[in-house]
Specification:
The protein has about 140 residues and is an alpha/beta fold. The protein has a 5-stranded parallel β-sheet with strand order 4-3-2-1-5. Strand 2, helix 2 and strand 3 form a beta-alpha-beta unit. Helix content is about 25%, strand content about 15%. It has 3 helices and 5 strands. The radius of gyration is 16 Å and the shape is globular.
């Protein structure tokens, strides 16, 4: 008989990830990024979808998996700034009832796209991962 799962304390308060493509084709690489991030035991992971134009069922499944894994360690997954189309998809999949889906103030600059000519902040930001994940099949 096994005992209750041991919980791991969080080592990072916040990890922000900007996702520009989120579908089955990118899932292996995107999943690997989330695996590495979750190994850091963050208290909160924010997935910024402001630069993403499409999300599919495989991506929703990955979000649910990340949510479950974070919940085991009392962490929280938040989806930020989905466009109206993606917001409808998340609502239809009832993902917005499972995890927070939030919008930031439109006048505040996004962490995914720094404003042109904007100087970097005086204090370093919390760990922020930028980029696009894609995988090519070996030929």
């Amino acid at each position: 008989m096994t005992g209750p799962l041991a919980t791991t304390s969080c080592t990072l308060p916040l990890v922000e990830v900007c996702v520009t493509e989120f579908d089955l084709a990118c899932l292996p690489a995107t999943g690997a990024v989330f695996d590495r991030l979750l190994a850091l035991h963050p208290a909160q992971v924010v997935v910024d979808l402001s630069g993403c134009r499409h999300i599919d069922a495989a991506a929703i499944g990955l979000l649910l998996d990340v949510h479950r894994r974070l919940a085991r360690t009392d962490g929280v997954l938040t989806v930020r700034n989905p466009n109206p189309r993606i917001r409808r998809i998340l609502h239809t999949a009832r993902l917005d009832q499972i995890l927070p889906v939030v919008d930031t103030d439109p006048s505040s600059p996004s962490t995914c796209t720094p404003a042109v000519g904007q100087e970097p902040p005086a204090t370093p930001p919390t760990l922020v991962a930028h980029g696009r994940a894609s995988v090519r099949a070996a030929t």
